[in-house]
């Protein structure tokens, strides 16, 4: 599906270099969505696959939403105001097709209940961004989603992002060992 013509969408810009690995974003997200501190159920997950490289990982709201298109029971839709993927928990059968379709393997199955978990942008007021900014890291920032940019470029696995950052931080030789 395409988002052409959708009004005022937001996007969470991620500046990986600024991420301290504090995981306040995971705490804020799980508190908001689950009512308790539960990083395993957070819609944003921070991966530290290599020392010194922290990767906040979350939905990139791809312009063509391959996850939405692939769902066999139409459990996924796009919020027209924010551009977020919305999961209908009642419809989802936890088949994992959306995970396979996502170039970043962003969705995952909720650790307790049988449905796919994807960032819903907190209905336009993302709590992870607030927590990150309050901590002074600004690794996450809300930006306006502008046309002509391929946000799907950010839909990469933590492994791929880590390798790219390692190349930048530590050089090609070290990155190749990862
Ligand atoms: S896990 Fe749920 S949302 Fe994902 S494709 Fe399967 S039914 Fe659809
Ligand atoms: S990043 Fe993954 S979950 Fe998000 S819109 Fe793209 S395919 Fe769907």
Explain what the structure shows.
This protein is an alpha+beta fold and about 180 residues long. About 25% of the residues lie in helices and about 15% in strands. The chain is built from six helices and eight strands; from the N terminus they run E-H-E-E-H-E-E-H-E-E-H-E-H-H. The chain has helices at about 25-35, 65-70, 95-100, 125-135, 160-170, 170-175, and strands at about 10-15, 45-50, 55, 75-80, 85, 110, 115, 140-145. The strands form four sheets. A two-stranded antiparallel ribbon has the order 1-8. Helix 1 packs antiparallel against helix 4. The N and C termini lie far apart (about 35 Å). The model is unreliable at about 1-5 (pLDDT under 50). Bound molecules: iron/sulfur cluster (SF4) (2 copies). One iron/sulfur cluster binds near residues 60, 67, 106 and 118.
């Amino acid at each position: 599906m395409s988002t052409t013509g959708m009004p005022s969408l937001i996007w969470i810009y991620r500046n990986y270099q600024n991420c301290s690995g504090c995981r306040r974003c995971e705490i804020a997200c799980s508190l908001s969505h689950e009512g308790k501190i539960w990083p395993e159920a957070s819609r944003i997950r921070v991966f530290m696959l290599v020392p010194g490289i922290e990767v906040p990982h979350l939905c990139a709201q791809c312009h063509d939403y391959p996850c939405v298109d692939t769902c066999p029971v139409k459990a996924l839709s796009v919020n027209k105001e924010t551009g977020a993927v919305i999961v209908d928990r009642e419809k989802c059968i936890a088949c994992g097709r959306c995970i396979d379709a996502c170039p970043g393997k962003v969705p995952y199955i909720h650790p307790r209940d049988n449905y796919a978990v994807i960032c819903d942008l907190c209905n336009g007021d993302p709590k992870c961004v607030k927590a990150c900014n309050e901590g002074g890291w600004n690794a996450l920032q809300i930006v306006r989603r502008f046309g002509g940019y391929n946000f799907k470029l950010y839909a990469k696995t933590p492994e791929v992002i880590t390798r790219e950052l390692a190349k930048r931080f530590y050089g090609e030789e070290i990155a190749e060992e990862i």
